[in-house]
Amino acid sequence: MMPHIATDRRANLQGAAWMVAAMAVFAIEDVFIKAASVSIPLGQVLIVFGLGGTLLFAVLAKMRGESLFTRDVLSRPMWIRAIFECFGRLFYGLALALTPLSATTVILQATPLVVVAGAALIFGEKVGWRRWAAILIGLTGVLVILQPGAEGFSALSILAVLGMLGFAGRDLASRAAPRSLSAPVLGFYGFVPVALAGAAYGIWEGRAFVLPDGQAGLFLCGAVLAGVLAYGSLMTAMRMGEVSAVTPFRYTRLLFGIGFGVVLFGETISPTMLVGSGLIVLSGLFILWRSRQKNASR
Known about the structure:
Helix content is 77%, strand content 0%. The chain has helices spanning 3-36, 42-63, 76-98, 101-108, 111-122, 129-146, 158-176, 183-205, 214-240, 243-246, 252-265, 271-296.
């Protein structure tokens, strides 16, 4: 075995491990936010979560000697990214608070499909008919989970779809963000909109903020720490291994989300959710495989 091949394989394995860890901690973050929102107004949860993440990323950037305030942070893509981050975080937070964790997590997995479609429509990236077909199949999986028109349909499930669209817009804007901005700086400006979203929703909802008890306070602290650790692990994964080898492990978040939903919140998994999940994941994996084939043939 050639040394560089062994090195690449080791890097991919390490990157995959970091990705799985990131998805597990993201799922834990969701659990903490859902648990905290039981006794604390969601606007307050988002404000504390956003400010906590902002502070931690500011410290990380300072430790690396990086400036948080440069001309690049005022670029148009960064403004667009902030708007979509605010939109996505707000509706995803509402989905976590008001709908089952398992269903919310599954719908979130459609984000890469929307990103690929958006990259084709906005950035002009070439997407063949096979990948377009996979995107449509994956979005059909979302409809299978939502069951619009069925007796068991809940309008609240649309919240997760809106959150997913917000995150897809954020990811597309991140592609156009200046390359000079590091992960801690992007993290800092990713958490600022969360606090702003919480403030806006808190004003609209009109609920008085409360002093968290010990348990709720731990949930809030846990959400902040989990969010920062998950983001850092994700950045490590994407920079350590090949993107095509590491990215498929994003879908392990689905397993963690469903597992936590069943074990911690007593949720049940319906056959339609399993079918929809399968369509979303298989479509996403096919798109990744097809992209890798295209890159290899160049």
